[in-house]
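Exercise 7.
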Amino acid sequence: MAAGIILAGGQSRRMGTDKAFVLFEGRILIERVIEPLRAVCEGIVIVANDREPYARFRVPIVADTVPDFGPLAGLHAGLTAAQAELSLVVAVDMPFLNLALLRALIDAADGWDAVIPALAIGVRADDVKRNRAKDLDMHPLHAVYRRTCLPAIQAAMDRGDRRLNAFLPDVRVRFFSADEMRPYDPDLRSLANVNTPEELRQAHRPAR
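Solution. The predicted structure, written as tokens, is:
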């Protein structure tokens, strides 16, 4: 069974307040993330540089490995602290996590170092070397990683590469396509996150 890692270390500048504690449909966002992870994971770690607000959740809280380095340092800290062979990693601002899809990502990890949704058609491992995650419609903060990724992540950090996908050319990546996701999540809504007040308002609208 996989551990669960929630990356909550961002500064939420675009939201104007800490996204983790923004109210959404009666619950704060981090509660909407913790609940499904508890259903599919064995243990949860929160990565947050300000630990005090998260103490109420009674789970381990760790800071980024390197301050102000971005989510790559958060991923490194989470995988290190989880001490599990496999970890499901999500961002704190994803209000529509889908249990069946999360389980499918975990189940797909056998033989791979990472399982990452990539919605662009025909994505291959070599594409990561030439393209940004955005170009591949890749979602590395709704993904599964093994501890075997840690040396490659550390190497990327050592060379000062802050990109979240910087280490992927050096590990075995299984890209999970849109067609594979739709049986579990037809609208792919579980990948949505809310970075701004406008995105929060849009998220309140029901899916078509």
